Amino acid sequence: MAAPDPAAERIYTAALVVIGDEILSGRTQDANIAYLAKWLGLQGIRLREVRVVADDTAAIVAAVNALRHVHDYLFTTGGIGPTHDDITVDAIAAALGVGVVLHPEAVAVLTDHYGDKINDARLRMARVPAGAELIANPRTKAPGIRVGNIFVMAGVPAITRSMLESLDGALAGGRPVLSRTVAAWTVESRVATLLADVERAHDGVQIGSYPFWRDGRTGANFVVRSVDRQVLDTTAAALIGALEADGIAAVDGEI
Amino acid sequence: MAAPDPAAERIYTAALVVIGDEILSGRTQDANIAYLAKWLGLQGIRLREVRVVADDTAAIVAAVNALRHVHDYLFTTGGIGPTHDDITVDAIAAALGVGVVLHPEAVAVLTDHYGDKINDARLRMARVPAGAELIANPRTKAPGIRVGNIFVMAGVPAITRSMLESLDGALAGGRPVLSRTVAAWTVESRVATLLADVERAHDGVQIGSYPFWRDGRTGANFVVRSVDRQVLDTTAAALIGALEADGIAAVDGEI
Predict the structure, then answer these.
(1) Nearest C-alpha of chain A: how many angstroms from B170?
(2) What residue numbers bound the domain in which A232 lies?
(3) Domain limit, last residue, from B167, B192, B226
(4) d(CA B75, CA B53)
(5) Is residue B73 a part of any domain in this protein?
(6) B152 with B184, same domain?
(7) pLDDT at res. B139
């Protein structure tokens, strides 16, 4: 069998809409972007854009409709709890032009969980855009929602992770982007030309340069990325060789 | 003098474009969003939207042009270093339809800093969109850039903070949004109606509900926000009263 033609390789992409006044006010440090990004990477899906918007229907609708048609998958986090500021379900339904219904299975899960303490606020968490399926949330029962290519997740990181576990391996993806890091105690401005030259000499590879300052010394991590393990290893070796040839001790790995 | 008419009060808004493959791959946890959000809050400016985009000219141009006209201020972070993956300056210039020039003052700062070790990569950090001013960066010298209502900042958080210090008090803003937190060891779904009622009974106030799980117990922080100190205090007192009346011990402050 011939190797797949890389030019014809299907690349799967995703976007994320983070819904939350608490992120935009700076009260809460987002932790979902990095986690979802890595999780998507493992599924062979590339996170291409993130938008953080307020708890505001118009803002959510605009972001969802701008992104859902241009990516294979759209994720949202936040705003699916029981309180008045949780407006994500209604906003997604508005974006899709569908109504909001009670999902019988979610009603059953929540009624089973809360028993005679079920109330309107708790049942609010069973509301979904018409046509939606549930995403299991083993942690706190209130489910996530899948409607078309949109995946509606919680804002609380532990719950989002619980929902993502339920989706592990369930989404079509391409080859994951692999990475290797080469590092050096050097200022990146000394090796800028060298980095560009190594990247240009290898097809299908990207090199990112990330400087840092530690213990009064300056260093940089050079992250090489490719979907092809062999290209990755060849490029990393070439980069180490080029750094050493320039008199710079290269570290095979991250500093 | 009559009190200012709140309806006529000018609200200043900002957006942020985070430029960085390292954020979208999950390699790096963003730390600039929360910091900038809080800094803007202190200046009386509200962060209304954040977009995280790749190191890709078309993506940067699209985000910058979508946001710069609808907000008073647009900030960017990332991509202004000396290496080949630092394309922010060119992308901003493209978005504005202007050329890129060497800023004489930046050339002077960098030449002074690097001495005879100045090179093309380092001079790259003196390139700015035509018409731009510099934002001082006491920490590592390479300056930030202001062009029109766009503020181009570093990706490395310590450097971004250094640049923001240079801008402290320099931007026109309105009244800062103040906040007070009331908390309780309760599940938010028990008090959802109560929260909505208290918010509705007070004009010019928002209440956000943020649940947490700690030491096997469930609690929630209720964040009350308003630009008016008196409205804020009245609402917080009313919320505490309503919780206590419902038999829930309220904490004046965050748990």
Answers:
(1) 20
(2) 178-252
(3) B167
(4) 13
(5) yes
(6) no
(7) 82
Distance (Å, whole) CA A22 – CA A28: 5
- What is this structure's pTM? 0.92
A37: nearest CA partner in chain B: B26
Decide: helix, strand or coil at residue A34.
Answer: helix
Q: What is the mean pLDDT of residues B146-166?
A: 96
pLDDT at position B15, please? Answer: 98
The fraction of chain A above a pLDDT of 90, given in percent, is 89
The two beta strands, A12-19 and A73-77, are parallel
Distance from CA of B18 to the nearest CA of A (A): 9
Backbone angles phi, psi at B135, to 5 degrees: -115, 120
pLDDT value at A2 more than 70? no
Query: Which amino acid, residue A174?
Result: G
Nearest CB to A30; choose among B33, B51, B81: B33
State the ipTM, two decimals.
0.91
Give the separation between CA B249 and CA A51, rounded to whole angstroms: 37
Chain B: closest CA distance from residue A148 (Å): 23
| Domain membership flag for residue B172 | no
Which residues of chain A are within 8 Å of residue B36 when distances are taken between CB atoms?
26
**Chain A residue closest to B200 (CA)?**
A84
Query: What are the pLDDT digits (tens) for A186-214?
Result: 999 999 999 999 999 999 999 999 999 88
Q: Copy the structure tokens of residue B5.
A: 């008419």
Residues of chain A positioned with their CB less than 8 A from the CB of B37 = 23-26
Mutate to test the interface with A, among B17, B85, B161 (most CBs of A within 10 A): B85
**Residues sharing a CB contact under 8 Å with residue B14, sequence separation 6 or more, in sequence order:** B40, B45, B46, B47, B48, B71, B72, B73, B74, B75
Length of chain A: 255
Helix (H), strand (E) at residue A202: none
Q: Is residue B12 part of a domain?
A: yes
* Angstrom distance (rounded) from CA B156 to CA A211: 8
Specify the higher pLDDT residue, A35 or A8. Answer: A35
CB pairs A-B closer than 8 Å: 188
Token couple for A236: 């990393």
Decide if B210 and A23 are in contact by the 8 Å CB cutoff.
no
Report how many domains make up chain A: 2
Residue where one domain finishes, among candidates B133, B167, B201? B167
